[in-house]
Amino acid sequence: MRHRAPSPSTAPRDMGPAALVSGLADAIDRVNRSIGAVVGWCALMLVLVQAGIVLMRYIFGAGSVFAQEAVLYLHGTLLLLGAAYTLSRDGHVRLDLFHRNFGPRGRALVDLIGTAVLLIPVALVIWSTGWGYVASAWQSLEGSPEVSGIPARFLLKSAILGFAGLLLLQAVASLLRAGLVLARPSRHGTAREGK
Known about the structure:
5 helices; disordered N terminus; disordered C terminus
């Protein structure tokens, strides 16, 4: 009988504070990446609906308010609910004046400051100002002003809170990761080979 190594799920794991913090950051990433994977399908649907609108307009001479609003709904959903996914993949455009010239600790410090000073306050302002706006839309079950439009504008407006909430979640993951890097002992001053 051969001895098998334990699988990663059954192997004992280090459950120290750093592992717990890293596990929480990874869990937040998984949530946002799962939402991003689902919302990513909006891009394909957006292209198909837009192509259908063009075909209807130029080949058949017909239009559809419902289809045109669907493009807006898909675009808004993709951008608002996909933003945290993009942040989790470090895919946002960044002005790398400082970031590119620093080592891991310097980049972690820039990320920590940027997240704490810019991202979190902006996401909180969006959440707090968007709350009343979304609540009002839900209270009246706001729909399209057009008779043949999509009767669910309140759902689209809800994506504003999703945007802010998911960005706040990803900001927590970013802060945790930056904190882990900054909490590690610095190698500065030890072996300085190659310099």
